[in-house]
Amino acid sequence: xxxxxxxxxxxxxxxxDIRTILEFNLKKEGYIVKxxxxxxxxxxxxxxxxxxxxxxxxxxxxxxxxxxCREIRQSNDFxxxxxxxxxxxxxxxxxxxxxxxxADAYIxxxxxxxxxxxxxxxxxxxxxxxxxxxxxxxxxxxEKYMVFQNDEEVVLPKKEFELLSLLISRPGIVxxxxxxxxxxxxxxxxxxxxTIDVHIRKLREKIGDNRIKxxxxxxxxxxxx
Amino acid sequence: xxxxxxxxxxxxxxxxDIRTILEFNLKKEGYIVKxxxxxxxxxxxxxxxxxxxxxxxxxxxxxxxxxxCREIRQSNDFxxxxxxxxxxxxxxxxxxxxxxxxADAYIxxxxxxxxxxxxxxxxxxxxxxxxxxxxxxxxxxxEKYMVFQNDEEVVLPKKEFELLSLLISRPGIVxxxxxxxxxxxxxxxxxxxxTIDVHIRKLREKIGDNRIKxxxxxxxxxxxx
DNA sequence: TTAAAGCATGAATAATCTATGAAAGATATT
DNA sequence: AATATCTTTCATAGATTATTCATGCTTTAA
Lengths: 225, 225
Hints:
2 copies of one chain form a homodimer. Chain A is α/β, with parallel strands linked by helices. Chain A has helices spanning 16-28, 39-45, 65-74, 93-98, 113-129, 158-169, 177-185, 193-207; strands at residues 8-12, 32-36, 53-57, 82-88, 105-109, 138-141, 146-149, 152-154, 175-176, 212-215, 219-222. The two termini of chain A are 15 Å apart. The interface between A and B is medium-sized, with 14 and 17 residues.
């Protein structure tokens, strides 16, 4: 990985003290750190800030860490996001394990800065080595009529396939609604404007929210990474 | 077996927690995992995703595991698919056995990840050794006008032969109805759209449902394995 | 700050497409 | 010519896809 790359970390905890301690220590090491105070905020934040690591308190109001982790794991957009749980030593560990939601690590409270930093470092190094960390690749095979995302097939019905195929044909370039109509629908059929939106939505559901960008008032584009 | 081959596993359970735990643990081992929440969904999924192993909850709404297993065993397409039942320890074991529908293994709930993984591994290894596990081969000999499936001749009338021959000439590639008309019927005769469907059906009756795939709104393709 | 425009989203409806059973039309075979 | 086999059509049912609609959110511009 680029040596200048600064790892991004999201801290989610309802206690301000904890947030402060973590933020201070992690920033000191050169990480880019954002903090939020509950699970709902966390998911919101993730829409604009995609970190390499999320440190999640298990017990939180609104939405606990386990649930947040589930959401993250379910989403297509965060395939290689590391999740670490913050647990009080007294917390019933077995319960967390039973509900295993896909955490990569557990960090115990109270926090010992030195220990914390070395664990974080280890986790991030692991990510660097992790082969799943290749760039998110999407491949469209028109002959086979198949789409692959990181070598796993994504099944798309015709219109969605054609739409994605179009957008991906010129990554980064904005396609206006008119262009999309022309290419995907042709001149015969006329459909309402919302139809495109709906197909875009379905695509996003399947390949993740971060690939297709809306350019308001203009159109859509497929974002190259 | 190819060392790069990733085993595919289908998990069928109505409880989301169980699905999540299984999926997480199995994926961590490198398996390709799909989950569905009931028997009906399972049979549907099997049309597009042919796994090596199915893990089936016994008790489910809609259609219980036993019935799903029966269906699987009856079908021609899943001759060497391993089926494992998930059973609660408290469940009346004898009843399940009485209804024995051809399960290869029983896995007990609650799930113990380590144990689960070692059992799965064992089951899949067994499959590797199983001689019935030769790859499904279909060969078309245009000169002799004969088709062989696993060295046994399949007798096909002309149109069916031509159709299969066409599809199999480029495995994985979708042939549109137009292309099929052109190649199999030529420009002289004109037949209705349904005619192709019917020939496809007959082919499927003879060589199994899992080889010829429908791409809705586009055409058909012969699935490479 | 408010109003307007543009988009996202959930849910309902409409349109499309294919599978299937059955039967009629061809073609070849005896 | 009669029979059997192959090819095609047709009607229907079932499922999937495509589209619309109503509502709410977010951004933009006044």
